[in-house]
Amino acid sequence: MTVPPSQPGPLRSPLFSRYLTLGAKLTPFSGWEMPLQFQGIRQEHQAVRQQVGVFDISHMGKFVLQGGNSLKTLQTLVPSDLSRLKPGKARYTVLLNPEGGILDDLIIYHQENEQVLLIVNAATREADGAWIQSHLPASTTWSDRTQEQVLLALQGPEAQSHLQSLVTCDLTQLSFFSHCHLQILGHPAFIARTGYTGEDGFEIMLSPEAGEHLWDSLISEGVTPCGLGARDTLRLEAALPLYGQDMTPETTPLEAGLDWLVHLKRKGDFIGRQRLEEQASQGVSQRLVGIEMLSRQIARHDYPLFHEGTCIGQVTSGGPSPSLGKNIALGYVPPELASPGQGLQVQIRGKLYEAEVVKTPFYRRP
Length: 366
Fold this sequence. Notes:
CATH architecture of the largest domain: 2-Layer Sandwich
Low-confidence stretches: 1-6
Mean pLDDT: 96
């Protein structure tokens, strides 16, 4: 009798047992088993907008590059100028393929002693790792710490006050997209003032033991545990693009509304530069725009967009906005139809419903 090989199960965060204790509804996500929600998506969303919530984002890829002038090497892989990125600062940018398409979006944290931390998407972690390593010089060491470290996102207007009591340094001195190493509850940790919700907040990387301690402490203080559902509604309101939907290898940063990441005049050659130069001079064929439904119908990913009876694009992300009480979406349209106020129709189950292009982000924190 031949015993079939056992199938590997999904990856799980060191905090997985905490999910079960809190009664989380679980969902598969990029090879991981993650919490979709705890109390409910709307409740978790409003907690982040009005007070504070905590997300376990340990599934995100965590790469460390050491030595060999890592930033100089990364300069050739992204369209953003990294030469001015000082230690203690971070930059959001994208990896590009030779056609200028987006392989992934990531945050580059420049640390001390020629060390760089990269946070990438879970779904693209292996591909990103192979791509970046293939361009690294022998003098740069590489490590993947994804499964070695817990990563928590503490987000909301009360995030600083909740975290301040657990650390010894003054968090008011940590500006947006800055980061440092410190002690949290007696444990060494990396902390950055970054996030994916449109609110103030922090992302904290630490050991599994320390992560459990911090999670338990925050929950005991009344911080709301949040899942992937609220993470998606929050980032959509803030018009923060999602890789695999709003950005793909077939879309360029100039098409995806990420012009501010492209520094053609400030830096030299990089992968995908030729395509971006062509688009900068000749224009793009499509643009990612914000869309508001003018009825109660909800636009979802892949729904067709119409104008005067012709299909002109598609929705990439969409859903209800708990903060605004509207149904909102992102989608690609021809540039001549990308101005705010432009009327469109969304096809839903064979029928067309009215919508219009609006400015983004849909929501801005006070």
